[in-house]
Each structure stands twice: as C-alpha cells, then as structure tokens.
Design goal:
Length: about 280
C-alpha cells in the first residue's frame, strides 16, 4: 500500500496535468452553475456530499456481476448481465456528481482528481465493451473485459479514497473546531457597527460576527465546504457567500441557501454583556 500512496503523491506533483485540468474545471463549473443543479449534484439537501453515496451502486453492481461470472455458472448469466447494465446506468449520475465536486478543487487535489476521473472513465468504457460483447454472443470475451474493468475500477477507487482521506476534499472543514459551550466574550460591543462584520476568536474557534438590524449574528468563519474564509465573502440579504466556491449560508442559523456546501455552517448564540459581545455554540 505504501507504493500506491507514493504513486498518488507523485500525481499530486504532476503539474503537466494543469493545462488540461484548469480549463476543464472551469468548463464544468459553468455547466453546474445554476443553483438547483448545483444543490442537487452537491448533496446540499442530503446533508453530506451525494457522490460517495452513488458510488456504492455501480461498484456493488459491477463487483457482484464479476462474482456471478466466475462462480454462478450458466444459470447466473442473466443476473450477471443485468447487474453489469445496472452499473453502467448508475455510473452516469455518479460521474456527474463527481465532476461537480472536482470542479471545486485546485492544485494537487485537482491533478489527482483528473486522473481518478480518467481511470473511472476507462473502467466504464471496459464495462460497456463487456456488455456489447455479451449481447453479441462473445460471453467469454465479455467476462474477461469485466474482470479487467474491475481491476481498473479499484485503482480509481483508491485515488478517490486518497482525495477524501488524504486531501480532505469535500469533508466538513468545521468538524474538529472546539466551539465553546459557555458564554465567551469575543469583542467589545462598540467595535461592531451596524452593517459591519468581523472575524474573532471564541477560544480557538474562528467566528464571523455580523450586526444586522441591531442584532448580532455569528457563524463559524471557516466554510464547511472547503475551508474558505467567510469573513472575506459577500454579505447581503441576511446571507454570507463564501469567496472560494460560492456556498451561501443564512446568517441567522447557518442553513445552506446554495451549494456546493452540503453541511450547514455551525452557528452561535450571541448576547451583549457588560459592554462585550459574547457567543456560545448553538446546540
């Protein structure tokens, strides 16, 4: 496994991929820009990214198809073919969510993600070729193609795991913040004017403070999607928009208005006590 990890790290440094990756990411970003599509593909209403959920379907279908090919005998052939076709069909929405997520990456993660997509497209092509061979009566050839495709698919899956668990792509970037449960002073009340916003610290947790219509509102200032600085974002209509990828959150409760974020932004209760703004993590 150390060899595989080393190869993934080498891909991170392969800047020769950038002339392809950068314009392709911009093109995908333009396609998924409409809010309903962006929210759907990002899993905004699901509560976590949609892509990992969908990957289980083609991987499971294709894996079971190969198993039936090799141990199921003649009677299992129709079931193996159905599973193969189901995996091909499920791969389409799975790929769409993956491209959506990849369009938000940059640098090393973008390079690995491009290879991850290319490997998975290769696997899908092999499975389609296997399906065609089976339909034309070349079952032995079809079974061989499926077996090769499964090996390619596992390589793509390893790179997908590297993106999630090593590069932290599309994980909740506020998950490990130590947010105070008790009232904690963060700023003199006089230093936050009406319509202004500030980044402060509540213990070790960065917090975005805003004063809207006389009310002090507070959210975690690190965007849950990819760690963007919300204090540098646009604040309007009771919402803050991340400057990195456009995730938009309701200032009142951290709810998601627009993806690609899929985890609501942690919010804080606020009060003014003895001339200081105090916050505590909202349960």
């Amino acid at each position: 496994m150390a060899v595989l990890h080393h190869l993934a790290r080498r891909l991170e440094q392969l800047d020769a991929l950038d002339p392809v990756a950068a314009p392709l990411a911009r093109a995908v970003g333009r396609v998924v820009r409409p809010r309903p599509l962006r929210n759907l593909l990002s899993g905004t209403n699901l509560g976590h990214p949609l892509h990992p959920v969908l990957t289980d379907v083609p991987i499971g279908a294709w894996g079971m198809s190969v198993l039936l090919d090799n141990v199921g005998g003649k009677l299992a052939e129709p079931a193996a073919d159905v599973l193969l076709a189901a995996g091909v069909a499920a791969a389409v929405p799975t790929a769409a969510t993956g491209w959506n997520d990849w369009s938000d990456t940059y640098g090393p993660a973008r390079r690995v993600g491009l290879v991850h997509a290319g490997v998975n497209v290769t696997a899908l092509s092999l499975y389609v070729a296997s399906l065609i061979a089976r339909r034309s009566g070349q079952r032995r050839r079809g079974k061989g193609l499926s077996l090769v495709a499964l090996g390619v698919l596992m390589a793509g899956g390893y790179l997908g795991g590297h993106l999630t668990f090593v590069k932290a792509v599309n994980v909740n970037h506020t998950a490990f913040e130590d947010r105070p449960r008790e009232w904690t002073p963060v700023l003199p009340d006089s230093e936050l004017a009406e319509g202004a916003h500030r980044k402060v610290l509540a213990g070790d947790a960065p917090v975005l403070l805003c004063r809207e219509a006389g009310e002090v509102l507070a959210l975690a200032s690190t965007c849950s999607h990819m760690g963007g600085p919300l204090e540098e974002g646009r604040i309007a209509d009771g919402c803050v928009t991340c400057p990195w990828h456009g995730s938009t959150f309701n200032l009142a409760d951290g709810g998601i208005v627009r993806g690609p974020a899929s985890t609501p932004q942690p919010s804080y209760d606020t009060r003014v006590n003895d001339g200081h703004i105090e916050v505590r993590a909202r349960h």
